[in-house]
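Q: what sequence does this backbone want?
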């Protein structure tokens, strides 16, 4: 990609607040973007070969949306956590094993996608995020869901296609959790906390493809309570 092409992209971005450069084989975050730290609201650098996100990412203080799907990121810089206006963060298909310690400072974050990374647990940093609506942690290497999950504020949590065999009963305490996706994991029926059915806000529980037959779920105590919530929600969206 030539300099003139990049220059044209930068000029457009200056006017629109959107910088999108996807599938161009970029090996690094374009340094020239720092000229636009006060302009940019959206950056999309998906489908490139970026291995490192530079500390200067922390300077984009008006950024609302950042997409770096399908790159080669193995870690994220702490500076990313300075983006106080960031609402949407898409990092699917990278090689991330953990999130920065200060990740909980991304106080405006609503949507977080980390599908297809190498996370081994549900990051505790997510529990400090008060406006989080949707968290996608599908296709990682998560084996258990810890007690801290009870503080998660998300409305939807996607844990499909992990290796989960244990879930903390605290998941039923999530104040806003309506949709819980646990398809294609390693759950025995006895490891699914009954309180999810009898005593939670969850109105859609997806558990196909685990180590039990779905019809066995219907025999559990609390299933009728869950079905009441499920039906009420369905009516609302019908």
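A:
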């Amino acid at each position: 990609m030539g300099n003139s092409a990049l220059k044209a992209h930068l000029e457009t971005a200056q006017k629109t607040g959107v910088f999108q450069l996807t599938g161009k084989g970029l090996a690094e975050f374009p340094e020239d973007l720092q000229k636009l730290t006060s302009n940019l609201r959206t950056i999309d650098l998906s489908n490139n070969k970026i291995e490192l996100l530079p500390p200067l990412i922390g300077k984009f203080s008006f950024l609302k949306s950042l997409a770096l799907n399908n790159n080669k990121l193995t870690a994220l810089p702490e500076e990313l956590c300075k983006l106080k206006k960031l609402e949407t963060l898409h990092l699917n298909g990278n090689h991330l094993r953990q999130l920065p310690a200060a990740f909980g400072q991304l106080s405006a974050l609503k949507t977080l996608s980390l599908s297809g990374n190498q996370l081994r647990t549900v990051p505790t940093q997510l529990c400090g995020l008060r406006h989080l609506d949707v968290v996608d942690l599908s296709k990682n290497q998560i084996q258990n869901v810890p007690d801290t999950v009870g503080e998660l504020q998300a409305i939807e949590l996607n844990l499909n296609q992990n290796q989960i065999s244990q879930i903390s009963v605290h998941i039923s305490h999530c104040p806003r959790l309506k949709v819980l996706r646990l398809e294609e994991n390693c759950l025995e029926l006895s490891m699914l906390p009954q309180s999810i059915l009898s005593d939670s806000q969850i109105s859609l529980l997806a558990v196909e493809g685990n180590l039990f037959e779905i019809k066995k779920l219907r025999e559990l105590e609390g299933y009728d309570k869950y079905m009441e919530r499920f039906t009420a929600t369905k009516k609302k969206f019908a």
